């Protein structure tokens, strides 16, 4: 065995003590560099190479003891502060679906098993979330362009050939009708985080190319009546530009240009808007702080299980329940934004910020619509509104966030270099 191989054996034994394999690459580089420094110090002191290596290993300490200490330092536990509000908010949504199906007249006018279907979606979503939390999100980086191309292609197919309901195209797959436009913001943010994590916005050619990449799916959405979705996409794209170090002028210019047509649409909607025939304000005003009714009048509000689930929670369970649900989601968004500061890998940081902004935009627009303050239809409440596609993708997004937080201390480019060389 060569003398230098003693270092390799030491490092290999050390890594065996560390369960979090995501930090092995960075630890190998760090320990190897430290051992080499100790060896050079011993050589300068006049020791032979063999004795210098022995002294370096001795100064590093017992491999098992050091390994145990590093294992404690680099543990990657589940982020309870992130997952807990999501689970409680999901329970709110599931409880609302239960009462809608079994304790309201909702099912008398629409034969929809909203609770049964929601239970399946939530269970599958939680399984995906937990599975992705264990998955190394960094492996998705190289597929960012593929995800973007796939999202744009499916969106194009949906816009051209989808069945339109109130102007919004649905993708028909035979076994299910999917509101693909609703989940588009999440998919775009996931792809943009990888495409723009090291983008050079100072290069004029790349700057225009970047604007084109961001704008194309928004232009597709502008051909539909999915106004809320396009607004969420515009906000998400602007956040990605800021996160990838575009100038303030570039980001504001993009947001302003992309918003012109939607501002016009909002003005048109506002002219014909009567606060959902005044039923929202009327019934919210009649709601108690604790709750006054679990029996929903059939003609109360259309789409109560999707767009207006927050209104149903207020009306049926009271303002206290609605406030708790709102606070939970706001805490979730605040939590992931604050924790994003500690993420070393820029791709992971941009992914967290993009998803947080998407969730935040969704909840703000949903609350405004439910309070009768916005004319925008079709805004699902995160984790609570009925719908399989958006629930599953929201849980996938949370799973990716948990995966990022588990690996927040992992190296940035060092990790990629090591992976590429092995």
TrEMBL record:
The keyword Membrane applies. It is found in: Membrane. It comes from the Bacteria. Keywords: Cell shape, Membrane, Transmembrane, Transmembrane helix. The chain crosses the membrane at residues 83-102, 114-135, 147-163, 170-196, 208-239, 251-269, 312-338, 350-371, 383-405. InterPro entries: FtsW/RodA, Perm_prefix_1. It is a multi-pass membrane protein. Pfam families: FTSW_RODA_SPOVE. The keyword Transmembrane helix applies. This is FtsW/RodA/SpoVE family cell cycle protein. It comes from Litchfieldia luteola.
């Amino acid at each position: 065995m060569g003398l230098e191989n003693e270092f390799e054996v030491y490092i290999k034994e050390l890594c065996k003590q560390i369960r979090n394999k995501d930090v092995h690459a960075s630890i190998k580089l760090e320990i190897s560099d430290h051992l080499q420094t100790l060896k050079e110090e011993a050589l300068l002191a006049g020791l032979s190479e063999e004795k210098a290596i022995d002294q370096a290993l001795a100064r590093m300490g017992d491999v098992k003891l050091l390994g145990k200490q590093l294992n404690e330092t680099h543990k990657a536990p589940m982020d309870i502060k992130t997952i807990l509000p999501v689970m409680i908010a999901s329970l709110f949504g599931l409880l609302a679906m239960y009462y809608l199906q079994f304790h309201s007249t909702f099912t008398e006018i629409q034969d929809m098993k909203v609770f049964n279907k929601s239970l399946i979606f939530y269970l599958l979503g939680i399984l995906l979330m937990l599975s992705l939390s264990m998955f190394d999100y960094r492996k998705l980086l190289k597929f960012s362009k593929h995800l973007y191309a796939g999202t744009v292609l499916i969106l194009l197919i949906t816009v051209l050939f989808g069945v339109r309901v109130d102007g919004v195209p649905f993708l028909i797959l035979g076994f299910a009708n999917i509101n693909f436009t609703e989940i588009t913001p999440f998919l775009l943010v996931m792809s943009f985080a990888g495409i723009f994590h090291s983008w050079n916005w100072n290069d004029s050619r790349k700057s225009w190319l970047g604007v084109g990449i961001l704008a194309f799916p928004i232009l597709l959405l502008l051909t539909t009546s999915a106004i809320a979705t396009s607004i969420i996409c515009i906000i998400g794209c602007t956040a990605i530009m800021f996160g990838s170090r575009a100038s303030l002028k570039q980001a504001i210019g993009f947001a302003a240009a992309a918003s012109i047509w939607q501002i016009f649409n909002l003005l048109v909607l506002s002219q014909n808007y009567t606060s959902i025939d005044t039923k929202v304000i009327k019934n919210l005003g009649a709601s108690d702080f604790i709750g006054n009714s679990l029996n929903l009048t059939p003609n109360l509000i259309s789409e109560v299980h999707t767009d207006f689930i927050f209104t149903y929670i207020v009306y049926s369970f009271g303002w206290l329940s609605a406030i708790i649900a709102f606070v939970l989601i706001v805490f979730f968004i605040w939590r992931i934004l604050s924790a994003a500061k500690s993420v070393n890998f820029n791709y992971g940081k941009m992914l967290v910020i993009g998803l947080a902004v998407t969730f935040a935009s969704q909840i703000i627009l949903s609350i405004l619509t439910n309070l009768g303050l916005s004319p925008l239809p079709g805004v699902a409440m995160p984790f609570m509104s009925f719908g399989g596609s958006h629930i599953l993708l929201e849980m996938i997004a949370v799973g990716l966030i948990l995966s990022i937080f588990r690996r927040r201390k992992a190296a940035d480019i060092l990790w990629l270099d090591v992976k590429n060389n092995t």
